[in-house]
User: Which sequence fits this backbone?
């Protein structure tokens, strides 16, 4: 269960040296996370680092009980170096507030830490990360989760859900219930906020947003009960 050892043995063996030293003390998750973030600035585990501006690492309290995972940074996140600060992030913030979840209390990260895009004139169009890019980047996500040890992880969208489950899944097949993860914590799956921005028709968009907030409310209630 979360809260036993700070970093389980297998993850610790695989950790970069700097992060390993901090994590082993068991007292300093913040230092371990900061060291891991520093390591990730030079990540070359897949080719996505080349065209991207920078690695966009997770952010939030090192002892957060709730951890959110998106797909990958978007255009604005790539420039700013922070996750979920663009349009999808603003929608996420609004939904979190409506669901009674304080963003400052959660750890927010992505399955893939570099922006993947197709250049189109001056614009950079989001391109979905493939399985090998997601798999390569899971190395970082596993270690973020091993340090933070959240009680509940929320997957925003199918890419995040697949990364966390290690198998492909659909939102409809996994939404709205707790899924046990190997470390004893829970995974909850919901839609990605970018999907909500693209839903055609005002009524349908409002309904999908309402369902998203309802998912977040259920997560808040579940967390309070754990
Ligand atoms: N979409 C994501 O999945 N993550 C971000 O950080 C921004 C947009």
Assistant:
């Amino acid at each position: 269960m979360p809260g036993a050892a700070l970093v389980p043995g297998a993850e610790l063996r695989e950790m970069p040296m700097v992060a390993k030293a901090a994590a082993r003390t068991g007292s300093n998750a913040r230092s371990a996370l900061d060291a891991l973030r520093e390591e990730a600035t030079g990540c070359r585990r897949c080719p996505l680092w080349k065209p991207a501006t920078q690695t966009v690492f997770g952010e939030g309290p090192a002892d957060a009980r709730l951890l959110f995972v998106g797909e990958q940074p978007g255009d604005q996140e790539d420039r700013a170096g922070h996750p979920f600060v663009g349009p999808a992030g603003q929608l996420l913030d609004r939904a979190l507030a409506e669901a009674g979840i304080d963003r400052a209390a959660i750890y927010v990260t992505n399955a893939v830490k570099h922006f993947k895009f197709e250049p189109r004139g001056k614009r950079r169009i989001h391109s979905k990360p493939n399985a090998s890019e997601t798999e390569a980047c899971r190395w970082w996500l596993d270690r973020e989760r091993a340090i933070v040890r959240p009680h509940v992880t929320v997957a925003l969208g199918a890419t995040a859900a697949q990364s966390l489950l290690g198998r492909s899944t659909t939102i409809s097949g996994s939404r709205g219930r707790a899924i046990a993860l190997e470390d004893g914590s829970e995974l909850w799956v919901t839609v990605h906020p970018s999907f909500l921005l693209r839903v055609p028709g005002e009524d349908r968009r409002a309904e999908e947003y309402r369902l998203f907030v309802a998912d977040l409310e259920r997560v808040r209630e579940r967390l309070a009960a754990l």
